[in-house]
Amino acid sequence: MTTLFRRGLSVPLAGPALPLEAAPEMTLTEESAISATQEADFRVDLLAEEGAMVAQGQPVLRSRRQPEIVLTAPVAGRIARVELGPGRRLSRLIIFREDAGGRHRHEGRDRRAALLESGMWTAFRSRPFGRFAAPDEAPSAIFVMAADTRPMAPDPHRALAGRKEDFARGLSALSELAERLHLVQGDGPDLAPTSHRLRVHRAGRLHPDGLAGSHIHRHHPARPGRPVWDIAAEDVAGIGELLRTGHVPQTRLVSVAGPALREARLVRCQPGADLRELTWRLVTPGARLLLTGSALDGREAQFLGLRDRQVTVLPRPEPAPPPHWFRGALSRASRPLPLIPTAALDQSMAGGIPVLPLLRALSAGDAETVERLGGLSLLEEDVALADYITGAEPRMAGLLRAMLDRIESGAA
Amino acid sequence: MIRGIWTRETAALLLLAAALPVAVMWVVHGGPEVLGRLVFVLVMAGIWHLVFMLARAQPPSFSGAHAALLIAMLAPQGLGPVQLVLGISFGVVVAELAFGGWGRNVLNPATVTLAFLGFGYPAAPWPELQVTLGWAAIPAALIGVGFGVVPWRVFAGAFAVALVAWATGAALPREVLTAALVILALIVAEPVTSAATHLGRWLNGALYAALVLAFGAFWLDAAPVQLAISAALLTSLAAPLLDEIAIACWFARRARRLGRKRLG
Asked: Quick one: DSSP state of residue A303?
């Protein structure tokens, strides 16, 4: 359904525009890593030792909590270093590329087992709470995201170019997992025919209309016991490819952009690629901040994140001199900063969510109201735009994460 | 990672900018005498902001100047400095600073000050607003809506009710209309103390217009400013209730669309 006025905002980001015509360059970086933040609390067992040679797609890490979930090597090569935090929490596993490793072939058994063994399972993100989908979880719906409105995000339609059959095969595999599929896409012809199990939704060009959270909140809200998954359309085509060939797809379409670049580009690189190599010779001189993810919700990192499809390079802000003690005391004492409703804030969440009541409830730690307003369908990325607009301190994204964790531990 | 520029003070400065057309008109008509009054109110409000900054570590805000301008413009005439100081202190402290400053307050300090002075000193005459001030309220509203610091739905709600009233033949004297417009543009539509949801804002504007119409029809010995301020006070007291109504409606609509089963 198209509406006359699309809600949302365009986030201005200086810097060179992404090339529209040129085909994405194939770049496999020398180093790559599977990384996780300590907050993600992902505890692992190693399936291959440091120094071992692994094939692309070969399982290298196994989740301790859910042993069915494995992560596979993004490239063929040698495991250079494994960094684990306390309690065997994964920090990162670094692989040096050596093409001699070859590709690991996954023999197809049933679909669920194939997805789990190949590591493609981790492409699903389960809401509420935004974790890996549990191996035995039956989602009530899966949202396939063929739209992305984050600033400088690559167009998912381009990622699907020439992979129509794989995409269709992937969709049919997904329809065995869930009763209902929702496909969110931009302009152009429908990527899949509508049926009683699959609905096609259109996303506008304005942020946050191309985020899964907006559509999940609007069409199929998640709650405990009734999880909703989302997955990028490119990964669905990847699942199709896996089922056809037995190989885990080697690359994904990633945009490298940002104000601190001389030239923006689209590349096809492996998951977990080295950001320094991707931005090599493109960065303008000076201190720079390499983000995995968009300028709104990205985080500083050396390697591409598990789900990220963009790299943003920002000028590193000058370290500010410590504020005058009085000013510092004033700004510390007034936190959380009050929220002033503006027209932009109203537009910062799609789906007609009462934005200010939701943010006020978040800021006050009122979990009941947040749940009532549909906050369980949202994740950090969905409130990142509100953070940008209000300059909220502490950040709404962090408050939402903390609240989701609290609700999760209470619900368990 | 990146942050925008829309902090609280940006919004406060834009709100001040939106009030400028009315302020300029008021100064042009009133001359140096009103300027003195403005400075007096600014200093008094500023002192309270300073006290709260030193005692409670609350950063002062430009919105204090916005409130001071409204108080100077709309306060009853002929009050002595002591009475004014009492009124300003009550309004600024109890309505705004005690809640933690602008952005956390429930009532507009100007509304509370004016209501306090009106109830406390009923013999003092209310100011007569020039008709040009009413006209100046239109660009004020446009600036506010254009920059997005003032919700347009409040105006839309008020005009919807005004249209209905006009169609049914209800008429207000020009003085009442002027005062109602100025107070609608500068006080009722202020973003923090008006309703925060879409439907709530429509209701907020509509309630204000309906109250002004009702007071105009039945409260015969009230001065125009007094009447509009009373309507504004009652409206902003009702704003949280209007928001609750709006959220209940949103929730009911959502439940109907998605089905109860999905919402649990």
From this structure: B
Q: What 3-state DSSP class applies to A126?
A: strand
d(CA B112, CA B244) in angstroms, rounded, equals: 23
Tell me whether residues A338 and B2 touch, CB distance under 8 A.
Answer: no
Q: Does B196 touch chain A (CB under 8 A)?
A: yes
Give the CA radius of gyration of chain A: 21
Which value does ipTM take for this structure?
0.91
DSSP track, A352-404: T--HHHHHHHHHHT-HHHHHHTTGGG--HHHHHHHHHHHT-SS-HHHHHHHHH
Could A337 and B101 be called an inter-chain contact, meaning their C-beta atoms sit closer than 8 Å? no
What separation in angstroms does the CA of A113 have from each of A75, A109, A119, A173? 22, 6, 10, 12
Question: Is the backbone peptide bond immediately before A208 cis, with ω within 30 degrees of 0?
Answer: yes
Q: Please tell me the distance from the alpha carbon of residue A17 to that of residue B116, in angstroms, as a whole number.
A: 58
Interface of A with B (CB under 8 A): 13, 219-221, 223, 226, 289, 291, 295-300, 312, 314, 329-331, 333-334, 337-346, 352, 354, 356-357, 360, 372-374, 387-391
Of all residues in chain A, the one with the smallest CA distance to B105 is A338
Is the C-alpha dihedral spanning B62, B67, B71, B73 positive or negative?
A: positive
A223, A341, A391 ranked by CB distance to B7: nearest: A391
The answer to whether the CB of A362 falls within 8 A of the CB of A396 is: yes
Rounded to whole angstroms, the Cα distance separating A283 from A276 reads 10
Whether B52 and B101 have beta carbons less than 8 Å apart is answered as: yes
Segments making up each domain of chain B, as ranges: 31-120, 135-258
Identify the structural domains of chain A with CATH numbers, from first to last: 29-103 (2.40.50.100), 336-411 (no CATH)
C-beta of residue A230 within 8 angstroms of C-beta of residue A126: no
What is the Cα–Cα distance from A111 to A176, expressed in whole angstroms?
Answer: 8
- Rounded Cα distance between B111 and A368, Å, is 33
Per-residue pLDDT band at B264 (split at 50, 70, 90): low
- What the block records as the tokens of A55 is 């094939």
Among B102, B103, B263, beta carbon nearest to A221: B263
Task: Give the model confidence (pLDDT) of A275-285 as tens digits.
Answer: 999 998 899 99
Query: By the 8 A CB rule, do A346 and B148 touch?
Result: no
**Distance of alpha carbon B255 from its chain centroid, rounded?**
35
Chain B environment of A387 (Cβ under 8 Å): 3
What does the block give as tokens for A261?
């670049």
CA distance linking residue B180 with residue B131, whole number of Å: 11
Span B80-100, mean pLDDT? 94
What is the identity of the amino acid at A308? Answer: D
Residue A1 pLDDT: 38
Mean pLDDT computed over B169-179: 88
Tokens coding B250? 């949103």
Give dist(CA A75, CA B195) in Å, integer. 55
Angle between helices B131-147 and B8-30 (to 10 degrees): 160
pLDDT digits (tens, 9 = 90+) for B44-77: 999 999 999 999 889 999 999 999 999 999 999 9
Give yes or no for a contact between B195 and B243, defined as CB atoms under 8 angstroms apart. yes
